[in-house]
Amino acid sequence: MDPNVIIESYVSDVVGRLPRRQRADVGFELRSLLREELAGRTEDAGRPADEAMALALLGAFGRPQDVADRYRPAGFTIIRPADAPRFAWIALGGVALQWAITLPAAYLDPTIAAWAASAGVAGAWWAPLPAWWLTWGLGAFWWPGFLITFTIIAAAIRHKRGEADSPAGPSAPMEWAAESAPAGASAARRIRPQVLDRDRVNRPGLVLALAFWMLGATVLIALPWLPQLAPGLPQPLLDAFAFDPEFLQWRAPWVLVLWAVGFGVVFAELVAGRSTRTTRLISVVSDAAWLVLLTWCLAAGPIFTAPATDGVVRLCLVGIMVIVAIDLVVTLRRGVTPMREPVVEH
Q1: How many Cα neighbours within 13 Å face the side chain of 206?
Q2: What is the tens place of the pLDDT at every residue in 3-43?
Q3: Contact indicator for 136, 102 with CB cutoff of 8 Å
Q4: How far apart are CA 257 and CA 248, in angstroms?
């Protein structure tokens, strides 16, 4: 393929992610920069540019989304990088403190004990946990929400004050929004290109996955307590989502344990920004444990008392087993040892 065609496709991908008013200028600048860099590589290699050379250049330059972000106008910073560790400790520490206080109280609360008895799991060591999670457990997340709300307000006020204090008015660039660059230097040149990192994770995707993960776990935890949480629901609906007592007693707790392990792995990768040897090893073991547990759930008896609901859930579990098996194979093929650290080109 013609290297110029590859560059043109790359430039189109980048500018397509930018506001329309920027596309023409950014496209002209980026196209010129890439062609200049390709010409330099051609001269160094002593041979004409080809497809492999163009792809290597673009791979070192970065993903189109990352390049587009370099050109995108900077907004206001909600949490400055220097303040992020302290903010995380305060937010998560507040949640942990609430859990440390309320979890022991859940085992002493007679109301929760009555709930456990009504669900048919009285006496089980984990019986208070679902009721605690649906009340104080999830309720503890008001604290991070409270902090981030006021942090956003404070950041917006600081941003507006910075615009008002700027000699050039609102259109002037904020001093804290980006590092100053030499006159005439392009935005793309100020950012050093780097080789794509195969171990880097998609943080927005992980945040979305964690949100759905927590939502799904909460729904499943709430089902045994549905008659107490929503006594006004029709009885046929309550009967349709009634768990089998044997499943609740023996198999359900292990589902929650593996769910918590998976949540921890994803959260660790979110914090680190990349997968590690430890997280991959845990993922492999967790996937294998999920296959064993789901097989046990299917073979040991009904999951729901209603045959129709139980049949649909069993079919869904088979699909989940296929997805888990695929994830296990992919992880094993990639290897549990992470790739080398990304090499930054100067």
Answers
A1: 18
A2: 888 888 899 988 888 888 888 888 899 999 998 988 888 88
A3: yes
A4: 13
